[in-house]
């Protein structure tokens, strides 16, 4: 326990300085951030550059960014037919107006990607209940808008009630209401409340609106998930209250670094996903020729498994607490995604005996459904490859 | 386990139509209502029997979203069968079929057997696409058609197995060049040795290791 306490102390000392030594902080974080106080959410904000190293700047940065985020919500999360400057041009605008200036046109276009976001956030981390729980700090202008600013309300499938009418003998009529809606665990909350998944939905919606060149790509939900979870679990209530805004900026910062993974036309570029997979493959060849040759002989190409590993920063391969621990190291990496490749390589090497024995199908399954194991084994192995 | 033939399949269609659930129902006989979304491709395998012969199906389940199209396209090559899936409760997934079909035809070998599947047939009260419309589309484009439910497992076996039967018949008719692996078919060691087209060693069939599938 004393070693743990000493580690916490090291973090606290580093974070107590007026100007944070980022190099020292990275060093500390790469071995994992202790799960106490607000250490992790604060370290992630620093590692992602949302907060600068100068401590005196923090309160003004946070105030400015959070207020700006508030404006994004006010201006972009709108009831149908309302212009982004807040005007409602009833005379000229109507739902069938396809003109480029039509607020309705924007509304319908937004709904196309919103529908996608809606589907995806409702399947975020289904093995834990966190995202289905109500947040303590719902966004007041949204949850008290009689549903008008609730994003998922826009894309909810409206189903007309149908009924079977059975006539039995003279004048006796039986009406069986058909009610077969599937049970939803990711339920929408009542007026005044909202669930964490609704907050994540809004973050992704705003990101897509503000980054139209990229929009929303599936998998972004898996990237925002761990960040939001860390921010929204901050023990400090003041930080927790602004988890949404802080998460938005941290997510935006991370996306700026990995956006190439999510843009189809950049697949072949240097930072693109194909090059990352190639680098992993070369790393494996260098470290374990036998395994490399085995996979190659089986025509088991890196894209069969490493595409998802890399593009989602391993967020789908391990349980959330392990993902968060992995991200401590990945975010602490100065050449950001080099260590990610070492982790991926370690994951393959740890399974080497299996891989050398298995046939093609078993190997694909092994690598696509990575078996549960102590994450520290993987990280230690990865560090030894560096 | 050894097999007579190995067929490669690909499952395509819009996101959220139930591609991964169909695969899971077929390979594991279970339904998972909230499924992780598919990024890139996922893999499944199962052995079936046709005409007394063991046939191994290797199935690639692809991501539905447009952004992944350049990654999933490479899987068309080398597929003997494709399941093209739409959701009967969402009209737009039916409207996109033409695009999917064009994509598949462009990037696959010309003999690939395509099965059109209207999934979620258990959600009758929310149906937006009539069964007749699916049938008409299939007829017009020369596809086999079936409505399935990954939830209740209705027609799921049939969808995968009927596709395999079509491929098997095409092999018997000599339509497929089974020595060309780009067609998505491999011959296993269980195959009758009298067959002159038996290739040399070097394929994975019957390799000593026991399998998980």
UniProtKB/TrEMBL annotation, chain A:
According to its UniProt entry, the protein's GO biological process terms are: intracellular protein transport
Tell me, what is one Gene Ontology molecular-function annotation carried by this entry?
GTPase activator activity
Q: Which UniProt keywords apply?
A: Cytoplasm, GTPase activation, Membrane
The record's GO CC annotations read: cytoplasm; membrane
Q: Which PROSITE patterns match?
A: TBC_RABGAP
This chain's function reads: Acts as a GTPase-activating protein for RAB35. Together with RAB35 may be involved in regulation of insulin-induced glucose transporter SLC2A4/GLUT4 translocation to the plasma membrane in adipocytes.
Q: What is this protein called?
A: TBC1 domain family member 13
**What is the protein's species of origin?**
Musca domestica (House fly)
- Give me the gene this protein comes from: 101898588
TrEMBL record, chain B:
InterPro entries named among the record's database cross-references: P-loop_NTPase, Rab_GTPases_membrane_traffic, Small_GTP-bd, Small_GTPase
An annotated GO BP: protein transport
Tell me a GO cellular component.
Golgi apparatus
Q: Where in the cell is it found?
A: Endomembrane system; Golgi apparatus
Gene Ontology MF annotations: GTP binding; GTPase activity
Q: Where is the composition biased (Low complexity)?
A: 200-213
Q: Record keywords: Transport included? A: yes
Q: Taking the first listed entry, what is the main subcellular location of this protein, grouped into a coarse class?
A: membrane
What would be one Pfam family of this protein? Ras
Q: Could you say which residues form the signal peptide? A: none
Q: Compositional bias (Polar residues) spans?
A: 189-198
Region annotated Disordered, chain positions: 186-213
Give membrane topology per the record: Lipid-anchor
Supply the alphabetized keyword list.
ER-Golgi transport, Golgi apparatus, GTP-binding, Lipoprotein, Membrane, Nucleotide-binding, Prenylation, Protein transport, Transport
Q: Which family does it belong to?
A: Belongs to the small GTPase superfamily. Rab family.
| NCBIfam families noted in UniProt | small_GTP
User: Per its record, how is this protein called by name?
Assistant: Ras-related protein Rab-2A
What species is given as this protein's source?
A: Lucilia cuprina (Green bottle fly)
């Amino acid at each position: 326990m004393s070693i743990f306490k000493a580690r916490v102390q090291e973090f606290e000392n580093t974070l107590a300085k007026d100007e944070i030594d980022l190099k020292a902080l990275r060093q500390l974080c790469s071995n994992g951030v202790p799960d106490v106080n607000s250490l992790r959410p604060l370290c992630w904000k620093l590692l992602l550059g949302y907060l600068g190293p100068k401590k005196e700047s923090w309160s003004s940065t946070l105030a400015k960014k959070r207020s700006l985020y508030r404006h994004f919500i006010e201006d972009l999360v709108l009831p149908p037919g309302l212009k982004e400057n807040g005007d409602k041009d009833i005379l000229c605008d109507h739902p069938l107006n396809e003109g480029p200036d039509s607020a309705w046109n924007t509304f319908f276009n937004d709904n196309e990607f919103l529908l996608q976001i809606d589907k995806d956030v409702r399947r975020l981390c289904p093995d834990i209940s966190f995202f289905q729980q109500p947040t303590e700090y719902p966004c007041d202008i949204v949850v008290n808008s009689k549903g008008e600013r609730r994003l998922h309300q826009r894309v909810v499938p409206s189903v007309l009630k149908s009924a079977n009418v059975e006539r039995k003998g003279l004048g006796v009529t039986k009406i069986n209401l058909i009610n077969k809606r599937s049970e939803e665990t990711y339920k929408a909350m009542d007026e005044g409340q909202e669930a964490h998944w609704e907050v994540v939905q809004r973050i992704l919606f705003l990101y897509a609106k503000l980054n139209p060149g990229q929009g929303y790509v599936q998998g972004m939900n898996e990237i925002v998930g761990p960040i939001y979870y860390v921010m929204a679990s901050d023990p400090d209530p003041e930080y927790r209250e602004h988890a949404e805004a802080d998460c938005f900026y941290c997510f935006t910062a991370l996306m700026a670094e990995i956006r190439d993974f999510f843009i189809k036309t950049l697949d072949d570029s240097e930072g693109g996903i194909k090059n990352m997979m190639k680098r992993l493959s070369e790393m494996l060849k260098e470290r374990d020729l036998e395994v490399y040759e085995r996979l190659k002989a089986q025509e088991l190409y890196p894209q069969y498994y490493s595409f998802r590993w890399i593009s989602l920063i391993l967020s789908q391969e391990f349980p959330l607490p392990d993902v968060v621990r992995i991200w401590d190291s990945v975010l602490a990496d100065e050449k950001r995604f080099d260590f990610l490749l070492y982790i991926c390589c370690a994951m393959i090497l740890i399974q080497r005996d299996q891989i050398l024995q298995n046939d093609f199908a078993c190997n694909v399954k092994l690598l696509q459904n990575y078996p549960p194991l102590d994450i520290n084994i993987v990280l230690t192995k990865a560090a030894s490859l560096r | 386990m050894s097999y007579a033939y190995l067929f490669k399949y690909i499952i395509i269609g819009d996101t959220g139509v139930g591609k991964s659930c169909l695969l899971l129902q077929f390979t594991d006989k279970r339904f998972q209502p909230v499924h992780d979304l598919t990024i890139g491709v996922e893999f499944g395998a199962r052995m079936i029997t046709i005409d007394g012969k063991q046939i191994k199906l290797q199935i690639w389940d692809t991501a539905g979203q447009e952004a992944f199209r350049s990654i999933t396209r490479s899987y068309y090559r080398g597929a003997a069968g494709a399941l093209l899936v739409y959701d009967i409760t969402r009209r737009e997934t039916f409207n996109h079929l033409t695009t999917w079909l064009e994509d598949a035809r462009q990037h696959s070998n010309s003999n690939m057997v395509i099965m059109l599947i209207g999934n979620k047939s258990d959600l009758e009260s929310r149906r937006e696409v009539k069964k007749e419309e699916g049938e008409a589309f299939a007829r017009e484009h020369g596809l086999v058609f079936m409505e399935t439910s990954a939830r209740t497992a209705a027609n799921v076996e049939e969808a995968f197995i009927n596709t395999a039967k079509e491929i098997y018949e095409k092999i018997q008719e000599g339509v497929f060049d089974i020595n060309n692996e780009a067609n998505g078919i491999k011959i296993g060691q269980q195959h009758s040795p009298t067959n002159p087209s038996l290739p040399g060693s070097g394929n994975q069939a019957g390799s000593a290791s026991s399998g998980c599938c």
